[in-house]
User: Fold these one by one.
Assistant:
Number 1:
Amino acid sequence: MKTIFEAKKVWWLLGLLSAAPATILASEWSGYLTAEIRAFERSPLDGEQKGGASAAAIFESEFYQEWNDGDQALEFTPYFRIDSHDEERDLIDIRELSYLHVHEDWEFRVGISKVFWGVAESQHLVDTINQTDLVANPDGEDKLGQPMAQAVYVSRYGDFSAFVLPYFRERTFPGREGRLRSIPWVDTDNPIYESSDEDAHVDFAFRWFNVIGDFDIGLHYFRGTSRDPGFIPEGDSSGRAVLRPYYQQMDQVGLDLQYTKEGWLWKLEALGRETSTDRYSAMVGGFEYTIYGLFGSSMDLGLLTEVHLDSRGLAAPTPFNRDVFAGGRLTWNDDADTSLIAGAFYDPDSGSTLGRVEWERRLKNSYKLEIEAQKLTNIDPRDLFFSLRRDSFLQIAISRYY
């Protein structure tokens, strides 16, 4: 089972709990327990992968307590996951374990935390601080907790943030027997680092964010270990082909920009990145237009279109190097918070298409039903999705909240 990282590297974080006031430790918790079933349309491509439907159980608990009129706060979010088919999906993680102190125009946070950057719907290109928990969901939305010290200065000229990131989290990948994986599979037990400090390399980041009229603007600079690994093909101890993740050092500048006008949201994320072997730029941009009160009802419909570009073209280690995303978001605005989002990525060069549908609805007060489907069609052999061409799936999850 994967764990967050060696206990000796986080003893000081756990000390936050022992030093907390007794009234905090007695506070109530909230969270959820999820039962998930994932069924695939076809048998696996690789004979080492397990066929049939897989099941998973997920537990996440959330704790938050503030005191001194909100100037101090403690947040703790443990996360557990176990899977019936793939041991690489088994995970014990701490999504949050942080202490916040506010003093006048300053905010200081230390511990394990999650930070989100970005405005786009189909890909969060500039969301750099936290590592992706890829086996949680192939859409890349789930993130691992990141050890950090953060300082934010809030002024009329915007929010100025500085981050010190003393420990690197490796990306999770499906295991040899799991689905939705590359062929060859990624050997997460033997990563390679450009830095001799490996996962102990200290990274730094700075960000400025401000709202100016109808514009939300974020600019950042990051220096440290890339969260996006390259891959080096090798053979394992049994002679089987594997891919070893390779984490380079990088310098990155990025922009996230959103313009809001009536029912329109215009969005742009762009970055420039330099490593010892490459220098490139990438962007995702487009719009979302919302039709309120669809056909005189209480429902709202958002229409989404975004374009993905990467200066490396077909050499980019990402499937979104020159793709178009189109979709919609339907919100019922009912007591059950029913919503549906559907869309597809289309590569105009190859014709490869990835479609995804997500529907959710609350059942009574404590339960939620989520249905997700992913369909891959006409996948070109040059596409990075080619190893997944038999992995279209339907997933059903029921969560109990408390």
Note: The chain has one domain: 7-401.
Number 2:
Amino acid sequence: MRDGVTARSAVPPAAAAEVVARVVDNLESAVRAPRETLELSVLVLVAEGHLIVEDFPGVGKTVLAKSLARSLHLSFSRVQFTPDLLPTDVTGVNVFNQQTNAFEFRPGPVFANVLLADEINRASPKTQSALLEAMQEAQVTVDGATYALEAPFLVVATQNPIEYEGTYPLPEAQLDRFTARLSLGYPPLAEEARMLQEQTTQPPLDRLEPVAGRADVLAAIEAAKSVYVEESVGRYVVALLRHTRASSLLALGASPRAGIALLRMAKARAVAAARDYVLPEDVQAVAEAVLAHRLIVAPEARAAGATAEEAVREALEQTPVPV
């Protein structure tokens, strides 16, 4: 087993839902963002996925990643992606030990439960690709040797949506490996005033305590995997994907991997609602966050002001919902 656990046992959906609710409540005390956004970040973890947070500087992207790791008592590491960052700075490197006359592997920051890849688009494509194997297969290969990563493993990558100078846009193949994309946005006036007061006295992150553990996360992940998906709901997901591929707004629609991510997120949302089955509403609730960043808007549609989010909403509106 990659996580060193001989067996994982699922818990009833109600127990998994309680874990998710506790973690979201805890995040609310440290991160000033809509509850739906915070819940989405927890669902990504339950779905064994990865998260990309695209937002302006200073809105709490780093605090979100740290708070999530601390709420679940998970190991956390952070990498500031820069143009001179090397792949081995992320994955680790073999170092020659003169005392033993042999090479020893020194793990990089990727060997953590929660990895914050800060400003991921500032590193070169070669360094960005160092995360591909870790994100897809939960393992790292260095000099021909493969090292497993401990579960759960979550990459939280951040991007600044307005600053493009000196950046390397993530290729579609890597964007496709991020389960969801979200934005925190600016908090309402009262919340922002409260945040200023907190951060200049005693930051909430400093006093944040764990409300669950690694075993709780693994059990919730297993509970999500066990959620029942009726054939009509599976066909609904496929119909949504096919709609994006045929859309006149898009040059590139959603891939089968996007459908897998959408269904896993829907199952995680069902568990968070204490259900052991998926409803079409679960798919609809997470569709925009899961699909939009994977789509490429056609040049003529972009010139007219169309967005990938609009294409997802169009697919949801025009695809028949199973009853």
Note: The chain is about 45% helix and 15% strand.
Number 3:
Amino acid sequence: MGKRSGHKKGSVGFRPRKRAISQMPAVGHWFGTDEKRLVGFAGYKAGMTHLTYIDDTESPSKGNEVFASATIVECPPITIYGIRGYKEGQVVSDMITPDEKILKIIGITRKKIHNFTASEVDAVFVLAYTRPDMTGMGRKTAERMEIAVGGKDSAEKLEYATSLLGKEVKVGDVFKAGEFLDTIAITKGKGWQGTVKRFGTAQQRRKATGKRRHIGSLGAWHPGYVHYTVPMPGQMGYHKRTEINKRVMKVGAASEINPLGGFTHYGVLKNNYILIKGSLAGPQKRLIRFRKAGRISSAPKVPQLIFVSTASKQ
């Protein structure tokens, strides 16, 4: 009987490992809240830096100054151009702002105004778009998205969404320092890769078959086909990935975080930014969507920052 000496290579949870359909990732689930607020936002990844802060967790380093990496995401204000109501997962109607200047940016010429009442819906979303033209990275096309609205009931959600219609919302109005959120983004694309890099399989010995970076066996004789779990070469990267429970370290103005010469491959920040502990998926200029975390129930603690590096990245 054969000896199983290693674990299966590659998580089945990430299959199929194919290219994402769009760079604008869809949010599959929103966590509800009784607080009247938007539970999501979006920004553009600018780069990374490092910081030191006082550890306020229950780890052995509690109360000590600790070092961590952090990602800077520029968040120009988003514009709310519509409200969408859902009933049992189906779209009931959309209410679109009559402001033609707002609609012109996303190319909507016909004003669709179909009012609905709170009794007709059980979920309320706002229709928003980003403003990349307000940044210095050169992108002009706005990304359109849906963002869920929090509240105790449909009436409260609709009332709050109506108050935002036709207005701009800043990131500081949605997320605060110390809060936890989930990030949804498209990872860096790495093209077509082999099994060693794609799945981490072992290289064969030098005199095995004349090849080293390939799979020695594609499986048993029967069934007479290659099973889908066998590591094979293929697309690596440019996948939609969701990371949960990322901590917001700070929300601030661009002038206090810009390094000398700007961020590499991005430029100089012109809008408010959000500083998130750790790394995020995607390269510079990639759209990052935020969602209120639903797996942490503790109240947010504002982190005590000691130092945030603004050294030149050039």
Note: Residues 95 and 114 are 5 Å apart (CA to CA).
